[in-house]
Amino acid sequence: MNSISIKVPVTIKAKLTEKLKERLIGDFTKTAEQMNLEIKQIEIDRQRELDNNPQHEARIQQFFGNEINQRRQRIAEANMRKENIEKLAIGAEIIQGTLERQVELKVGDNMREIMNVEVLIEDDKIIAIRG
C-alpha cells in the first residue's frame, strides 16, 4: 500500500476586527442576560414548588440550586470571555473552531505540513490558508 486517505483537523482562526469584536462582546453580553432571566424564572419555579410541596424542601432546594449554579457558571464564563475579547487588539487572531479535511497520504509526505493547516478569516471571508 502506497497511500491512505485520512481525516485531519483544520484550525479556523478569525482576524479580530471592530465588527467581530462588537459581535462577540454582544454575544457574551446576551448570554449573560439570558442566564440572568433564566435564574429569575428558576427562582419563581422553585418558590412555586416549595409552596406546593413543602415536605420535599431539601430536594427542591437542591434541584433548583443546581440549576441556578449552572446558569451562574455560564454567566461567569461569558463575562470572562467578554473581558478577554475586550483586552485583545484589533488584528489579533483568535481560534474559532476546527473542521476536518480529507487528505491522501503517500509515502514520503511531510506529516507536519499535513497536520498543521489553518484557515484565517476576516469578516467572514477567507484571507489565508496556511500549511
Descriptive keywords:
131 residues, alpha+beta, four-stranded mixed beta sheet, 3 helices, 54% helix
Kindly describe this structure.
This protein is of the alpha+beta class and 131 residues long. It contains 3 helices and 4 strands. Strands 2-1-3-4 form a 4-stranded mixed beta sheet, with no helix packed on it. It is elongated and about 70 Å long.
**Record field, number of beta strands:** 4
Uncertain regions: pLDDT < 50 for 5+ in a row?
Answer: none
Report the β-strand fraction as a percent range: 25-35%
Span between N and C termini?
26 Å
**Overall mean pLDDT:** 93
Question: What sort of overall outline do the alpha carbons produce when their principal axes are compared?
Answer: elongated
**Strands side by side in the biggest sheet:** 2-1-3-4
The tally of helices reads: 3
Give the biggest sheet: 4 strands, mixed
Radius of gyration from CA coordinates: 23 Å
Query: Helix and strand string, N-terminal first?
Result: EHHEHEE
- Give the fraction of residues assigned to helices: 40-55%
Q: What structural class is derived from the secondary structure elements? A: alpha+beta
Q: Would you summarize the structure shown here?
A:
With 131 residues, the chain is α+β, with helices and mostly antiparallel strands. It is 54% helix and 29% strand.
